[in-house]
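Changelog entry

Holo records now carry the ligand SMILES as an explicit input line rather than a separate metadata file. Below, a converted record for magnesium ion, shown in the new format.
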Amino acid sequence: MPVKRILVVDDNLANLKLASEMMECEGYLVDRAIDADAALAAIAAHAPDLILMDLALPGMDGLDLTRHLRSRPETCRIPVVALTAFAMKRDEERAMEAGCDAYIVKPIDTRKLPGMLAGLLGASIR
Ligand SMILES: [Mg+2]
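Structure line, unchanged by the conversion:
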């Protein structure tokens, strides 16, 4: 099975590094983006199998970026996992309404995330 590619989008560089390295340790190929423009450029260069999406981004936020991806035939099927620091029920609802497939609260639970991602990617990579 080919290695799965994950795009991590987060404007906080420490979070971006942490999440990216966590995914690399799980064996995924990781692209990184610090905002919506960088994410769209990365997606255009090589479509990811899944996106780990911080919702709070400068400029176009993660909700709008998810809606944008959902509206386009070439990106509408890419699973999006929303990542947010705010453990608010309303945020989870907004993420799901925008088209996200799952929702996780920072700090990332390193015991749960790999299983969740493997499930969304359709199969374990191990
Ligand atoms: Mg942020």
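Spot-checked after migration. The CA atoms of residues 98 and 118 lie 22 Å apart. The first strand starts at residue 5 and ends at 9.
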